[in-house]
Amino acid sequence: MNDIEQIVIGTLQGLISSTAFILVLFIEMGQISPPIGINLFVIQSIWTGRLSDVVMGTIPFHLIMFVLLALLVLFPELAMWLPSRAAAVP
Predict the structure, then answer these.
(1) CA–CA dist 9, 42 (Å, integer)
(2) Tens of pLDDT along 49-76?
(3) Of the candidates 1, 14, 58, 70, which lies 20 to 30 Å from 42 by C-alpha distance?
(4) Number of domains in the chain
(5) Which residue range(s) make up the domain with 55?
């Protein structure tokens, strides 16, 4: 493999991995967001409170996921930090 192919393959691997993490974050946010949030209805069926209380309880989790999403967009190498550390250990 020449140098250009290695650069292209490395860049694509980084983009794919960070994109996969971003996709998982969006799916998680969709699971706890109205109107489709399946997890909201599961929690509301277990708990005797109102659905609006359950939705309000998810706001801190949304904020945390938005911060994580911003970090992954700004610093995509964070997505591969732990797997690269695990691969480096013999």
Answers:
(1) 42
(2) 787 888 888 889 889 888 988 887 788 7
(3) 70
(4) 1
(5) 21-75
